[in-house]
Design brief:
13 helices; Pdz3 Domain; 6-stranded antiparallel β-barrel; 19% helix; alpha+beta
Length: 498
């Protein structure tokens, strides 16, 4: 298991993936054996209106408040190129209300077709701001927003945040019904909740259930972001394809989450749904509306994944104790400024106890660069508290710098000044001793190749190469020459470096 798979960093911060939990088969509405079309429609309509929560909880008030503020989002993506889409590997294929064979014109149709899909959204202001999932609107050329009263509007994407899978859409309207944000920190296990959306391409639908877990990381956002952000509320309220971007509300009808993912062996409801908590939604939505993008805060610590195996805990020397074990602290980070060290246990964020890395992620995700945060931690059994100012970048992790260089699969040596002058270059790093890695798997680079630039940054030493790769993240353009042909510059694209 790689460092990327085993570690998580509070950046607002990356929880790593153990595999997609969205569902593993195509939406089945048109593939039920032994039923005619009218029976299928009846089955799905009735199933999606089933409520299973405690009958003592009256959701009529909550439904009356929430339904008018939840919208149906229909998207159109224009045809751009020929070729059948890769439906099997699309992580979001099971969370839209349209059958994907119809949506894409059939898997075997090699002619480019416009794509239609649908999801849900929640109005959060009277003047037409709507929050939804990024995967509902990402890549769409046209948006049609329909309210529960059947009024339709053209929508415009204001901004997106792939890390959290959130997006803000705007319609030109006034005096709209909207939902208030509840404090998701106050959500508790066993609390009754209502999910509202447009599942299976039906009219607006409500389903009830309870909160079955909090601060869940399932790894789904890592498929679309280098810095995934996950701390889901888990619920057993029935959530199906098309509910994506819809509301999870409490018994008062206040928003506690945005429904985002399902865990299912079939692609439809199987008992586990995941919602982005409202405190995170509120902060990210406010940033997008005010600034056009999110203002992400970073603490700068690395910790073990919540699902880390015992084998990896032993391999990376992760200790057991109260709080969250700090595996590494980034140089020049907020955590380093607070005096936190490798081997400490973080126990509190702003006075609230934390027992998992995902809980730390959730707390930091609601803050911005420049905010002060109180960190409680243990060192050798002694309780300590420090206050630090969050930064807009995580700092540099030594282990990730080494990993980025090692992933190339070679040894490197700086070009001597005399040779550089002879070749007419300012300097570079020679590729030596190639072994299986990114260079052999993704490029035709041979031993002796001289790397002169990573992206547009000049490289003259091995340390500069290491730092440039770390800054580049998971992909980079490597430029250089061969000594026997210094007049020609070669460029190679590298991906999946971390």
């Amino acid at each position: 298991m790689t460092i990327k798979q085993s570690f998580a960093t509070v950046a607002v911060a990356a929880a790593t993936s153990l595999g997609s939990l969205w569902g593993f088969s195509q939406y089945q509405q048109n593939h039920l054996p032994g039923l005619d079309s009218s029976q299928k429609a009846s089955l799905f309509k009735n199933a999606s209106y089933t409520a299973t929560a405690d009958p003592a909880i009256d959701f009529e008030k909550a439904a009356k408040r929430a339904v008018p503020a939840v919208v149906h989002i229909k998207t159109l993506t224009k045809a751009r190129q020929a070729g059948a889409p890769d439906l099997q590997n699309n992580p979001f294929k099971d969370f839209f209300g349209d059958d994907l064979n119809d949506m894409f014109g059939g898997q075997g149709n090699m002619q480019a077709q416009p794509r239609r899909a649908s999801g849900s959204g929640v109005i959060i202001s009277a003047d037409g701001y709507i929050v939804t999932n990024n995967h509902v609107v990402d890549g769409a050329d046209e948006l049609s927003i329909t309210l529960s009263n059947n009024k339709s509007y053209k929508g415009k994407v204001v901004g997106k945040d792939p890390s959290s899978d959130l997006a803000i859409v705007k319609i030109e309207a006034t005096n709209l019904p909207y939902l208030n944000f509840a404090n998701s920190d106050n959500v508790h296990l066993g609390q009754s909740v209502l999910a509202v959306g447009y599942p299976l391409n039906l009219d607006v639908t409500v389903t009830s259930g309870i909160v079955s877990a909090k601060s869940r990381s399932i790894g789904i956002n890592s498929q679309n972001s280098k810095t995934p952000l996950e701390a889901f509320i888990q619920t057993d309220a029935a959530i199906n394809p098309g509910n994506s971007g819809g509301a999870l509300v409490n018994a008062d009808g206040d928003l506690i989450g945005i429904n985002s993912a399902i865990a299912s062996p079939t692609g439809s409801y199987a008992g586990y749904g995941y919602a982005i908590p409202s405190n995170m939604v509120n902060k990210i939505a406010t940033d997008i509306v005010k600034y056009g993008s999110t203002k992400r805060a970073y603490l700068g610590v690395m910790f073990g994944n919540d699902q880390m195996s015992d084998e990896d805990r032993q391999k990376y020397d992760v200790k057991e104790g109260e709080g969250v074990f700090v595996m590494e602290v980034a140089q020049n980070s907020a955590a380093a400024a607070a005096g936190i060290q490798k081997g400490d246990f973080i126990t509190k964020i702003n006075g609230t106890s934390v027992t998992s890395g995902t809980q730390i992620i959730e707390k930091i995700a609601t803050m911005r660069p420049g905010d002060k945060v109180s960190i409680g931690f243990q060192r050798n059994g002694a309780e300590k508290t420090a206050t630090t100012t969050l930064k807009g970048e995580s700092g540099v992790y030594a282990s990730l710098k080494e990993q980025a260089l090692e992933s190339l699969g070679a040894t490197f040596e700086a070009v001597p000044k005399a040779q550089a002058a002879q070749l007419g270059i300012g300097g570079g790093v020679t590729v030596k001793s190639l072994v299986p890695g990114a260079l052999t798997e993704q490029t035709r680079i041979k031993e002796g190749f001289i790397i002169t630039k990573i992206n547009d940054q000049k490289i003259t030493t091995v340390d500069e190469l290491r730092l440039a790769l770390q800054k580049a993240g998971s992909s980079a353009i490597m430029s250089g020459i061969y000594p026997n042909n210094p007049q020609r510059e070669y460029q190679y694209a590298l991906n999946d470096l971390q």
